[in-house]
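Model: Ready when you are.
Researcher: Fold this.
Model:
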Amino acid sequence: MRSDEIQEKANRVYILLCGIFIASLIASNLIFQKFFMWDVWIPFIGDYTFELSVGILPYPITFLVTDLISEIYGRKKANQVVISGFISSLFIMGIVLMADAAHATVWSPVDDVLFTKVFGLFGPAVFASMTAYLTAQFIDIRVFHFWKKFTNNKHLWLRNNGSTIFSQLVDTSAVLFLLCYFAIIPWDKFFILFVNGFLFKMLIALIDTPLFYLFSGFLRKKFNLELGEELT
């Protein structure tokens, strides 16, 4: 396959990954106000009940995507998608705030009170989320490439999980602190939501490791890359 054909395919895959990343990020911010409980058995812990925001469900996908982009496309491209996600979230925040300010008609299925109840906290929540998001994602990318260089491009599982675990610790603590600070959630929920959120993200990080191996291996084969080699 010619290099220009490989580059064209790589560009299409990169755009697809960016779309998945941005969609997951925005969805997590839009749906965060609903909380649910999930009973699960965890090795060495036993039966455990998670109390989580549904916004946490799509969010780990963003770290899997940035790890894939870091592995195949390099650090610069990974940073670009993080910035794109940030700008997209601010754009959506502006649209939601304008929609909240517009008065509903008397026959509107969703009135002003209901709309504000669902989306009224979107602005402060996005500020908290984006502050934690930028910090955690840049840390994730930096730590990923540190382990990649330190292990001489070996041990995919280490850079995949090592970067995600540390960055998710930062992300979970930072976003909960800001949400409590802005009185979006009460302070007495901080510890339980931190434990639940961080533990859940660690489980997802372990679960997505085979997916990271699968997709990174597929893309390396598709783009004729050696282990650790990046597209230029």
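Researcher: Now this one.
Model:
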Amino acid sequence: MLPICGSNVAYFPKVSEKTHTDWFPLGEATICTDAGDYKVVSIAAQMLADDVERVTSARSTIVSATSLKKLPHGATVVAGTVGHSRIIDELVRQKAIDVSAVKGKWESYIVTTVNRPGQGQLLVIAGSDRRGTAFGLMTLSETIGVSPW
């Protein structure tokens, strides 16, 4: 895992182009946001999809969902802002993720994985605010070798 420095609390899981034991298959993952979240989140998700394609030649599908039940099966990157993404808030309510380290902070995010037996793994990026969510997505691009700047 790669630690992210600064005020962000994030350890990115090992990511790979394809399915590999103990690695998140980013090259095969769907990217999911909530249409009710800030516009910058969907822009950053699109940028991540572009970067994944640059690295793997595979285009990530981007979808919008409002609940865990509506997420696609398979590996999924879920990105959202605490209090503005229904999926992130649902994961918090279910105690699947803990956002206490970033809640109420500026431009911070967490990155974690959530296993969904029989449905696929989630790589969750939860931002404290809209910039935090965008920074989390752009930092994921950076970890795969693409500078978002």
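Researcher: Key takeaway?
Model: Residues 39-56 form the longest helix (18 residues).
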